[in-house]
UniProtKB/TrEMBL annotation:
PANTHER family: GRPE PROTEIN, GRPE PROTEIN HOMOLOG. The lineage of its organism: Eukaryota, Viridiplantae, Streptophyta, Embryophyta, Tracheophyta. Signal peptide: none annotated. The keyword Chaperone applies. It comes from Arabidopsis thaliana x Arabidopsis arenosa. InterPro entries: GrpE. This is GrpE nucleotide exchange factor coiled-coil.
Length: 326
């Protein structure tokens, strides 16, 4: 070890190894910023030329001049930072389509502006080949523009048709929902109506018994009160189901609600007014469970025939008196 330290330094030309050139692979990373714009970072990384740099590896250096020691194979790591390479790009979905459209329009405008400037220069230089090339490019841009305009018009028509179709479907669904709800309510009303119609006969029996019972003793009064409490509870249950009584006395006769079983002259009520109710009628919502049986006024009636009849009776009486006196 002491001999190695005392040995003078020997400057050797390093043995160059054949290092194949590394092809350049750029990488691109896209980030989505707060403004929804993609930022592209391009980085070029290349290795140093073999002729101008240091070798990556040194093999079997020659012995020192003293011959006291030999160096073994030594590996030298390059201090050059490693470059991470990516073969693809990280795509992030852009949430703002409007910003992309504006950016695309700006790029197209820049391309067209550059072509127009080149066209002016070619005209100034009288370069027919360049002029023809630029005109062909402008013609292709115009054709593409017309094609896109036709496509936009076609898509607009399809959108209008689909929008109308969606409106019709929404209206049909709304009508279907309303019709279904109406049918459901009618079904419930019909079921309740059938049950209540069968119970109306029981209600009539209670009212008939009430009108015929004559209470004479205290025991009979207690029994009558018990029946009346049951009747009252029964009426309250019908009311909770939506059953209402059809109004009759003093109201105009309605053939949809009333059933006339008798007509009678009346000086108090006009013609067509209900005078008396014989059987109650009931409604369940808008459904008529049964009509009311009523007596209807026929009006005051003829008065002149009655006066003439009175005069005839008076004349007949006076004639009889004359006959008896004679």
């Amino acid at each position: 070890m002491a001999g190695l330290l005392k040995t003078p330094s020997l400057h050797l030309t390093p043995t160059l190894l054949h290092a194949p050139s590394v092809p350049f692979k750029p990488f691109c990373v896209s980030f989505a910023g707060g403004r929804n714009t993609s930022v592209s970072l391009s980085r070029r990384a290349s290795l140093r030329s073999v002729s101008s740099g240091y070798p990556l590896r040194l093999l079997n250096l020659v012995p020192f001049a003293s011959g006291e020691a030999e160096t073994t194979e030594t590996e030298v790591e390059s201090n050059e930072p490693e470059v991470q390479e990516t073969d693809g790009a990280v795509d992030v979905e852009n949430e703002n389509a409007g910003a992309e459209e504006v950016e695309a329009e700006e790029e197209e405008a820049a391309v067209v502006t550059a072509l127009l400037n080149s066209y002016k220069e070619a005209l100034a230089e009288n370069n027919e080949g360049k002029i023809a090339e630029i005109e062909a490019s402008l013609k292709s841009i115009e054709d593409e523009k017309n094609l896109l305009a036709d496509k936009v018009a076609s898509l607009s028509n399809e959108l209008s048709v689909e929008r109308d179709r969606l409106i019709r479907i929404s209206a049909d669904f709304d009508n279907f929902r309303k019709r279904t709800e109406r049918e459901r309510l009618n079904l419930v009303s019909n079921a309740q109506g059938e049950v209540v119609e069968n119970l109306l006969a029981v209600l009539d029996n209670f009212e008939r018994a009430k009108s015929q019972i004559k209470v004479e003793t205290e025991g009979e009064e207690k029994v009558t009160n018990s029946y009346q409490s049951i009747y009252k509870q029964f009426v309250e249950i019908l009311g909770s189901l939506g059953v209402i009584h059809v109004e009759t006395v003093g109201k105009q006769f309605d053939p949809m609600l009333h059933e006339a079983i008798m007509r009678e002259d009346s000086a108090e009520y006009e013609e067509g007014i209900v005078l008396e109710e014989y059987r109650k009628g009931f409604l369940l919502g808008e459904r008529l469970l049964r009509p009311s049986m009523v007596k209807v006024s026929a009006g005051p009636g003829p008065e002149k025939p009655r006066e003439a009849e009175g005069e005839e009776v008076t004349a007949q009486g006076s004639a009889e008196e004359e006959a008896s006196s004679s």
